[in-house]
């Protein structure tokens, strides 16, 4: 039979009559040039799993990675607000080590998150058609004479324990021990732990250590930020409390000294009422805050005036030590000494 070539006729175009020569359409990329080498395709371009690849196959994520973007955004937003508002206050009032420790923890958390999300978790390649056909022959040969299909299991001994291996109908192979097929990514992952939507990837043999480091360091970072925020609020609350106390003093036209001593109190009677209060909060505030500035009374930049016209007092003659006294004093002293020895 003669080979025939078929081409789809677009709607609205009349069918060609008999004897019409139909020329096949050119290939999508144009006519092939003789000697032109085709670009070799990489394996990630035809990867059968439900993954997305970036940077030429160097980075990979699950196809549904919106929650990973939310996780990254929450960490960046929370840490950014902490560095913008809390760190400057705590660094100036407590120590400069607080923003340094927070920065180290933040970069470590981000590094572990990216390593967990973009790293191959331990995906096992699927069997090729020839390998799958060979395995099917081996399974059929292990069947019995009955019509029951052969069991798709295999037993191996690990540390004197029998472990049963299951057959993966998607990947066409027996799964190694501790391997499971992820229903989200559609891949068999070695030492499969779970599929974590928060990191946008499976957690398995090749990224479990980064996942554990991520959640552990994130716990430390969260606790550190919480402790620093509580400290910030405590220091800020003391300032707010002090400002509230002085607002009460201004509204009552009192001083801190008078309030501590209880000099004026309406509870003790009308005779102990504050005589400086104007009986109105607004008036007291205006009197304290908006009153005129009184001039300084100490004149601290004034010049000292020299003493002028003060008469000098006559100097009193005081005998110096070792000087001779008059004869009357000497005689009195001698008589006193004689009377004491008698």
Concise structural overview:
The protein has helices at residues 66-93, 97-118, 129-141, 208-252, 256-261, 281-289, 327-341, and strands at 51-54, 59-62, 153-158, 161-168, 173-174, 180-182, 187-189, 194-196, 201-203.
- First CA to last CA: what distance? 174 Å
Q: Rg, please?
A: 49 Å
Strand order of the largest sheet: 3-4-5
- How many individual helices? 7
Count of individual beta strands: 9
The helix content is 40-55%
Shape field: elongated
Q: What's the mean pLDDT score?
A: 79
Element order: H for helix, E for strand: EEHHHEEEEEEEHHHH
Main pleated-sheet profile: 3 strands, antiparallel
Overall structural class, as computed from helix and strand content, comes to alpha+beta
Residue share in β-strands: 5-15%
Which stretches of 5+ consecutive residues score pLDDT under 50?
1-13
Pfam families: DHHC
Organism: Mycteria americana (Wood stork)
Membrane topology: Multi-pass membrane protein
EC number: 2.3.1.225
Describe this structure in words.
By secondary structure, the protein is of the alpha+beta class. Among the domains are: 43-121 and 189-229, no CATH class; 125-142 and 149-178, no CATH class; 248-289, no CATH class. Helix content is 40%, strand content 11%. It has 7 helices and 9 strands. The chain has a 3-stranded antiparallel β-sheet, with no helix packed on it. A hairpin with a 4-residue loop joins strand 6 and strand 7.
